[in-house]
Write a structure and sequence with these properties.
30% helix, five-stranded antiparallel sheet, 173 residues, alpha+beta, globular, 6 helices
C-alpha cells in the first residue's frame, strides 16, 4: 500500500480550473497593497465574499477562511488597514480584533464542535508570516485526535471538509 496517496475527489474542481488564472483585481484604498489578498478582499464588494472566502466584516476587521488551512475551519482575522506591526493598531482596532477573535472562536466551536483552538499571530517573515505586510491572527480549530498519525508519520495533513462547505457553515453563524 502506498502511504503517500490521500483520496480527495473534491480537489477535481480545482485541478480542472485554470489555476494560473490571475485573481480578480480591484482598486484598494490608499495605503493598501494591490497584491495583498487581504487588501483585495477588504476592497472588493461583499458580493464576492464567497469567492474571497470572507465570512465576516466589521468596521475595522475582516475574517477570511485560510485558503491553505492547517485544519478545517482555519480562519484569519485581520485589520482592514494594511499594517504589519501591532503598535500601528488604533485602540479601536485592537478592541475590534479581540472581539472578533472571541466571536469566531465561539462560532467555530458551535458550528463545528471544535474541542480546542490554536490562536496566534506571526509577525515578520522570519516568524513564519506568509504575508508579512498585513498582520493577521490565525484561529485553528482542534479536535481530539484530529491529526491522528498522518502528520507525524506521513508528513501529510488531511482536511476533512471543502473550503466551500466550511464557508457555508461559518457564514450561517
Amino acid at each position: 500500500m502506498n502511504n503517500d496517496v490521500l483520496w480527495a475527489p473534491w480537489r477535481m474542481a480545482y485541478i480542472k480550473s485554470d489555476a494560473k488564472e490571475e485573481p480578480r483585481k480591484v482598486e484598494v484604498a490608499q495605503g493598501g497593497d494591490p497584491n495583498c489578498f487581504i487588501c483585495q478582499a477588504v476592497a472588493d464588494s461583499t458580493e464576492y465574499d464567497r469567492e474571497r472566502l470572507v465570512v465576516g466584516r466589521t468596521e475595522s476587521t475582516v475574517a477570511i477562511l485560510n485558503r491553505f488551512p492547517y485544519n478545517n475551519g482555519h480562519l484569519l482575522i485581520a485589520p482592514k488597514r494594511h499594517i504589519a506591526r501591532m503598535e500601528l493598531l488604533t485602540p479601536e482596532e485592537s478592541r475590534d480584533i479581540m472581539a472578533e477573535l472571541s466571536y469566531w472562536v465561539g462560532a467555530i466551536e458551535k458550528a463545528m464542535n471544535a474541542e480546542g483552538f490554536n490562536v496566534g499571530l506571526n509577525l515578520g517573515r522570519v516568524a513564519g508570516a506568509g504575508l508579512p505586510g498585513h498582520m493577521h491572527w490565525h484561529i485553528v480549530p482542534r479536535w481530539n485526535g484530529d491529526a491522528s498519525f498522518i502528520t507525524t508519520i506521513g508528513s501529510a495533513k488531511a482536511i476533512p471538509q471543502a473550503l466551500e462547505a466550511a464557508w457555508e457553515l461559518l457564514r450561517r453563524e
